[in-house]
Amino acid sequence: MSRALKLTVGNKVGLIACSDGVKVENLTKVEELIRIMNSFGLEVVISNTLFRRNGYFSGSPKERAAELNLLFKNNEIRAIFDISGGDSANQILEYLDYDNIRLHPKPFFGMSDLSVILNALYTQSNAKSYHYQLMTLVSSDGAEQQAAFYRTFFQGHNDLYDFKYHWIRGNQMSGIVIGGNIRCFLKLAGTNYFPDPSNQILFLESLSGRANKIVSLFAQLQQVRTFDKCAGVILGSFTELERYNEFSIVEEYLKEISRIPIVKTNEIGHGSDSKCLIIGENITL
């Protein structure tokens, strides 16, 4: 597994919200997160588009994109962490400076609605990005996540990269990882930001959605021929679906509409103990 990101004491990292802005009532959690990052020896640079201003947004689409472009252009910034989620990230895609990102790539972290940015960075800049939510460091599993974060990004271990899985079909798959949150990933369908799934490994997870909703999203992926082309599927956690014990419905549907290798992991998704998957990284399972 790639160890492209290695942090050291004194590094600067950026904090931004490119999807729905962070609610002001979560200020205490953000301050706690910054204290933890400072305790690692990191200097946190806070973007001007972090907290909500009016309604849902931390700024206009152009403002949010401009702030992200600035973090990419700033050579002192070692990594960028987006701690937002929601529905608004795809608004900024057309305003990102993909040429600069291609010439000066750096790790971008985010998940859920940030799936649109993770995949756009890959398709437009051939850049790797990290499906991971930094706020897990201040979650109910915060102590374990802090230890895993430090061991992974400061000491070069694979704590956040190694995940347990079991085979639903097949016993081997290899390719570049694309995907993320299934609902948000499908926002890219029909756009230039949607990655070509040919010989790629498609990762999918979801927070909300029972069987009828998730099956409909799988049907859309099948109708745009994604499952016909990809080399395999990694199914992460489907929080609501699994809470209602309906995962088997989706599993059977996927086996019915595809013939590709499939693995299931409970260690990547919206859980407070979630691990990290690199979009744009070539992996073999």
From TrEMBL:
Q: Describe the location of the LD-carboxypeptidase N-terminal domain by residue ranges.
A: 13-131
Supply one GO BP term: proteolysis
Q: Which InterPro entries match?
A: Carboxypeptidase_A_C_sf, Class_I_gatase-like, LdcA_N, Peptidase_S66_N, Peptidase_S66C, S66_fam
Which residues does the Swiss-Prot or TrEMBL record annotate as the active site? 112 (nucleophile), 205 (charge relay system), 270 (charge relay system)
Q: Which GO terms describe its molecular function?
A: carboxypeptidase activity; serine-type peptidase activity
The record, for CDD domains, names: Peptidase_S66_mccF_like
User: Where is the LD-carboxypeptidase C-terminal domain positioned along the sequence?
Assistant: 174-285
This one is known as LD-carboxypeptidase
Source species: Paenibacillus odorifer
Starting at the broadest rank, the lineage of the source organism is: Bacteria, Bacillati, Bacillota, Bacilli, Bacillales
